[in-house]
Hints:
The chain has helices spanning 2-10, 15-32, 42-74, 84-96, 128-155, 160-176, 184-191, 193-211, 217-234, and strands at 76-82, 107-113. It is mainly α and 236 residues long. It has a two-stranded antiparallel sheet.
Amino acid sequence: MELLARIRSNFAFSWEEWKALLIMCAAFAFIYSFDQWDATNASIGFISLFIAFVIALVSVFAHHALQRIWGLYEGFKIKQELWWYGILTGLVLVVISNGNIKFLAASGTFIFMNEIWRLGQYRYGLSFWGWARICFMGVLANLLLATWAKMLMFSYPDNVFFSRLFYFNMIMAFCNLIPIPPLDGFRIMYISRLFYAFAFGCIGGYFVLTMLGIYSYLLALVIGIIVWLLTLTYIE
Length: 236
């Protein structure tokens, strides 16, 4: 019940955050639909752009919403900020690669302690492990959306929306795990390289498997464990 009270009073995004979210979604929609434009039929391009914007809006909101909810559970207020260099990187890469490279990461998550919520918590104060868990929740949200989209793809194989939703969320999850500040991957790797190696191995492995037409979470888990073991043996 306490979590529900925190959500009711502190979940809402500020106007600045909504503005950043919409800018991010517009940029992601352009990047994701870049290779779907037809020079002979502009209407196809506009439809693809609109579909991409809806997908981006759902995916980006889910990414940050789950981070926000988990942050409130951990006892922190969350603020998301737009990373302009991420948008610029995505636009440059998609243009020079003619749509083959889609970089979908352009935000950073920051936490602010609420002293009352943190009373009784281990090592009362700012928790870097908590920060890492909060950041990972965003990646997890994209994976859950991708899983839901994949199940619907099998039920509706001719539905373009579910297919695009699946690949968008897989790309977004993978890109956000890249260890570049202020992305989620940087926060996670800074706290624990072993946890980062496992997460990156699972998600990166699943991403590669899907590119090969293989949809197996079990194989992705095996890849994550292998990457974890290699990191433990040769780096840690």
